[in-house]
Specification:
This protein is α/β, with parallel strands linked by helices. It contains nine helices and twelve strands. The chain has two domains: about 120 residues, 3-Layer(aba) Sandwich (Rossmann fold); about 120 residues, 3-Layer(aba) Sandwich (Rossmann fold), CATH 3.40.50. Helices cover about 35% and strands about 20% of the residues. Helix 5 links the parallel strand 7 and strand 8. One of its GO terms (molecular function) is shikimate 3-dehydrogenase (NADP+) activity.
């Protein structure tokens, strides 16, 4: 029962209607008997939204597209890994002090943990999510990655940002198909969005990873015989780490998969 003492958590972004975060976090609040509710807010102005977090006493926040980079300048403190990545997806409100974290890279690391990454790898996109994936590959021990982005300048910023940690090679679209592992960090996996690559040009032995959960791109890849992994595991593990930051509770991963893969 929601009452005056109920704590509020939320996700902000635009668009936000596709988010499964409320479904997952509310299920976990219920499972662990936490008097809290998690809502989704579509916002236009990130500065005003962050001010609202302090003003309303919202205890924790997830941040999604397109605000993961922009939100940083409105926070009071940034965790060290998030500083390197330059992107925030989790915020904790500690008595009015807003602390920023990146749990996306932890989620993606779980996705690639058991994959042989001693191969040619290409990342599509150059936003906050791609930075998190690059850092996860770095933690995995990968020394070099290929980056494709429609806007060259944005990809070049990533190259400069990670120059001391990992070699990033900026490639043209035609060179995407030479890679053995391709990671899509763009919105191309969302239903109704434009495909960023021609799946028919991919090598049948290649692996396509999409950070979008329940990805249409991965479904299309399967239809033409391409092995693919969607973003469900990344999503659940980034949520696991966010939940732990907020509550100090390590939620049941198996239960989380049941919640996400169960009935809508």
């Amino acid at each position: 029962m929601i009452g005056p003492q109920t704590k509020l958590y939320a996700i902000i972004g635009k668009p936000i209607k596709h988010s499964l975060s409320p479904k997952l976090h509310n299920a976990m609040f219920e499972k662990y008997g936490i008097d809290a509710v998690y809502l989704a807010f579509e916002v236009n102005n990130i500065k005003q939204a962050v001010e609202g977090v302090k003003g309303l006493g919202i205890k924790g926040l997830n941040v999604t597209l397109p605000f993961k980079n922009e939100v940083i300048k409105f926070l009071d403190s940034i965790e060290s890994q998030a500083k390197i990545i330059g992107s925030i997806n989790t915020i904790k409100n500690s008595n009015g002090t807003l602390l920023g974290y990146n749990t996306d890279y932890l989620g993606f690391f779980e996705t690639i943990k058991d994959i042989d990454c001693n191969k040619s790898i290409c990342i599509l996109g150059s936003g906050g999510a791609s930075a998190a994936c690059i850092y996860a590959f770095y933690k995995k021990g990968v020394k070099s990655l290929n980056i494709y982005n429609r806007t060259f300048a944005n990809a070049f910023k990533l190259k400069e940002q990670f120059g001391d940690l990992i070699t990033l090679n900026l490639i043209e679209k035609k060179d995407i198909y030479k890679n053995e592992i391709i990671v899509n960090t763009t919105s191309a996996g969302i239903l109704g969005s434009e495909d960023i690559i021609d799946l028919n040009l991919l090598n049948k032995n290649s692996l396509l990873i999409d950070i979008v959960y329940k990805s249409e791109l991965i479904k299309k890849a399967a239809a033409v015989g391409i092995n693919g992994i969607d973003g469900t595991k990344m999503f659940i593990y980034q949520a696991y780490h966010a939940f732990k930051i907020w509550t100090d509770i390590e939620f049941d991963i198996n239960h989380a998969f049941e919640v996400i893969n169960g009935p809508s």
